[in-house]
UniProtKB/TrEMBL annotation, chain B:
<dbReference type="InterPro" id="IPR035906">
    <property type="entry name" value="MetI-like_sf"/>
</dbReference>
<dbReference type="InterPro" id="IPR051408">
    <property type="entry name" value="Phosphate_transprt_permease"/>
</dbReference>
<feature type="transmembrane region" description="Helical">
    <location>
        <begin position="31"/>
        <end position="56"/>
    </location>
</feature>
<keyword id="KW-0592">Phosphate transport</keyword>
<feature type="transmembrane region" description="Helical">
    <location>
        <begin position="126"/>
        <end position="150"/>
    </location>
</feature>
<keyword id="KW-1003">Cell membrane</keyword>
<comment type="function">
    <text>Part of the binding-protein-dependent transport system for phosphate; probably responsible for the translocation of the substrate across the membrane.</text>
</comment>
<feature type="transmembrane region" description="Helical">
    <location>
        <begin position="85"/>
        <end position="114"/>
    </location>
</feature>
<dbReference type="InterPro" id="IPR005672">
    <property type="entry name" value="Phosphate_PstA"/>
</dbReference>
<keyword id="KW-0813">Transport</keyword>
<dbReference type="GO" id="GO:0035435">
    <property type="term" value="P:phosphate ion transmembrane transport"/>
</dbReference>
<keyword id="KW-1133">Transmembrane helix</keyword>
<feature type="transmembrane region" description="Helical">
    <location>
        <begin position="235"/>
        <end position="257"/>
    </location>
</feature>
<feature type="region of interest" description="Disordered">
    <location>
        <begin position="1"/>
        <end position="20"/>
    </location>
</feature>
<feature type="transmembrane region" description="Helical">
    <location>
        <begin position="156"/>
        <end position="176"/>
    </location>
</feature>
<dbReference type="GO" id="GO:0005886">
    <property type="term" value="C:plasma membrane"/>
</dbReference>
<feature type="domain" description="ABC transmembrane type-1">
    <location>
        <begin position="89"/>
        <end position="295"/>
    </location>
</feature>
Length: 307, 307
């Protein structure tokens, strides 16, 4: 029984692992297989066009330039907002807060990750967007000559509002990972800094920040990966430009991301050609998030190898 | 106290900080850092408080009505008062259960294979890589894959089961990674003690390793369920929303809390239907936070501590 049980158990766990590998390979191959015919039939350049006409399967015209811009812009702005705040929170939890407060504080920040993304979307468009109007007007008035702050939609559904919501959504993940690396700063380094007479901030600058740098960068990249793929919150918030509207690169404009484009048009997946176009867009999103996550992991591994 | 240490230090300066500069500037910097770090923490907590406040104040009236938990929305337009989230709650729970029933065995067995059988081998690296790819899959891409495969290619209809499949792709890596972490924490001495008594490997895993790690595994599973329950995009694409109750996950549209919020969010504020969107949001948040709290409560009693 022992021998047989061993073989059975080993087989079952190996089987499960192989199923997981098979799923991943199948997802990748299948998506490619579905996307290629549509890509081949595409009448415009897939990477540089902003057109999206997939209704007529004889004349598919679709390109991802606009989607890529909005996706990357909203996620990068979100990261610029979220990373400094997250590092601050992680420093507060590990270096400033009394021990009794640190645990509960980390838990409360984590609760932010428990809020479902559709609730973020609902709150973002109903509560946050109207209150961000003054900030948007200020940016438009003072920096409007830069294309990035050119006047866009007047209602709340701007890239900027979406970015703020995305930032809130990635704060818990960036904070949690940063906190973990900061906590592992070697005690002798901390003590050495204190022995030199460093103030608390100098101690942090000399030991905690250099030690945690690669961890923070990799945490930020993971957050970026999360922001790139976020669907529903962005879909609810962003105003969709009317077809034929001129391209507006501004954070004060609306737009569509890969994810929101796909989700917005779920009703359209009726022919393989149309579906293939959306799958091609989804694949680009998949590849971008994969690269970002891979970079995050590389940095984390290198940081671990020689701290 | 630290100031005295500074004043008596020898003049030779280690880089990068000049610790003999006038005390005032250094204290000021230290103070500034303290203020910024505390401000970041407040800034990170503000959205959580704000979101909880809006969801509770807007949703509480609807949720406190006992009909909310006992009735569906069948026959109720957004203009009418009444009805409840019963169908949506049942749908959400049903979809989460199907997803859990598939993801947990696969994830736990995969983790067992990784830790107990394949530690450090080539196949372990391949499995890890596959799981990493799954971790980075945006939910909309998972949904798109299931749609293209089950519905476009195989011609099956939309159903709760299809949505569950997409959620499995998202839950699987969470379960596998958290189980893997817990299994790694089980001390080898426990395994060796069991082998020394002549217990076969499979029995050691089932009777010694898993029970030791169980609370951690359960916590990971609960957090995975909580995360998956809030996912909206796969439900939107793969089951749509039904007002009435449908107990059959195998076919037809089914209500769920996220899609209920989504179907009501476009109503003008002030309509009873719009209030119910917030009621559904509050219900979903309550369920998800409860799962989080239970998960963390269980891990508190865990025999294994990460640090």
């Amino acid at each position: 029984m022992g021998r047989f049980g061993d073989r059975l158990f080993r087989g079952a766990s190996l089987g499960a692992s192989l199923v997981i590998i098979a799923i991943v390979v199948f997802v990748g191959v299948f998506l490619l297989w579905m996307a290629i015919p549509s890509l081949a039939a595409d009448q415009v350049n897939f990477l540089t066009s902003r057109e999206w006409q997939v209704g007529d399967s004889g004349n598919l015209r679709f390109g991802i330039a606009g989607l890529l811009w909005t996706t990357v812009l909203s996620s990068v702005v979100a990261m610029l907002i979220a990373v400094p705040i997250s590092v601050g929170v992680a420093l507060f939890i590990t270096q400033y807060a009394p021990r009794r407060l640190a645990g509960p504080l980390a838990f409360v920040v984590n609760l932010l990750a428990a809020v479902p993304s559709i609730v973020f979307g609902l709150w973002g468009i109903i509560e946050l967007a109207p209150r961000m109007q003054p900030i948007s007007s200020f940016l438009e008035d003072s920096l409007g000559w830069i294309p990035l702050f050119r006047s866009g939609v007047s209602a709340g559904g701007t890239v900027l509002v979406a970015s703020v919501v995305l930032a809130i959504m990635i704060i818990p993940i960036v904070t949690a990972i940063s906190k973990d690396v900061f906590e592992q700063t070697p005690a002798d380094q901390l003590e050495a800094a204190l022995a030199l007479g460093a103030t608390r901030w100098e101690k942090i600058r000399m030991t905690v920040l250099p030690y945690g740098r690669s961890g923070v960068i990799s945490a930020s990249m993971l957050g970026l990966g999360r922001a790139l793929g976020e669907t529903i919150a962005v879909m609810i918030i962003l105003s969709m430009p009317a077809p034929g509207d001129p391209f507006n690169p501004s954070v004060l404009a609306g737009g569509e991301t890969f994810a929101s484009k796909i989700a917005n048009n779920a009703q359209e997946f009726d022919t393989p050609e149309k579906t293939g176009a959306y799958i091609a867009a989804g694949l680009v999103l998949f590849v971008v998030t994969f690269c970002v996550n891979a970079v995050a992991r590389l940095i984390a591994d290198r940081g671990r190898a020689n701290p | 106290m630290t100031a005295e240490l500074v004043d008596t230090r020898p003049q030779a300066q280690p880089e990068p900080l000049d610790l003999t500069r006038p005390r005032g500037a250094r204290t000021a910097k230290n103070l500034l850092a303290t203020v910024l770090v505390s401000a970041a923490t407040l800034l990170a907590l503000a959205p959580l408080v704000w979101i909880l406040y809006s969801v509770i104040t807007r949703g509480i009236r609807v949720v406190l009505n006992s009909n909310w938990w006992l009735q569906s929305q069948r026959g109720i337009t957004p203009l009418m008062e009444g009805g409840g989230a019963y169908a949506a709650i049942v749908g959400t729970v049903e979809i989460a259960l199907i997803c859990t029933a598939i993801a947990v065995p696969l994830g736990v067995l995969g983790a067992i294979y990784l830790v107990e059988y394949a530690r450090g081998t080539k196949i372990a690296r391949v499995i890890s890589f596959a799981v990493d790819i799954l971790t980075g899959i945006p939910s909309i891409v998972a949904a798109l894959f299931i749609f293209a495969f089950l519905i476009t290619l195989l011609g099956l209809g939309r159903s709760a089961v299809a949505a569950s499949f997409a959620l499995v792709l998202l839950m699987l890596p969470t379960v596998l990674r958290s189980t893997e972490e817990m299994l790694k924490l089980v001390p080898d001495s426990l395994r060796e003690a069991s082998y020394a008594l002549g217990v076969p490997k499979w029995k050691t895993i089932v009777k010694v390793v898993i029970p030791t790690a169980l609370s951690g595994i359960v916590t990971g599973v609960l957090l995975g369920i909580a995360r998956v329950m809030g996912e909206t995009a796969p439900l939107l694409i793969l089951v749509s929303y039904a007002m009435g109750i449908n107990f059959n996950p195998g076919s037809g549209v089914m209500a769920s809390l996220p899609t209920m919020i989504n179907s009501l969010r476009d109503q003008p504020p002030g309509l009873p239907g719009f209030d119910r969107a917030w009621g559904a949001a509050l219900t979903l948040i309550l369920i998800v936070i409860a799962l989080n709290l239970i998960g963390r409560g269980i891990s508190r009693f865990s025999k294994l501590k990460e640090k």
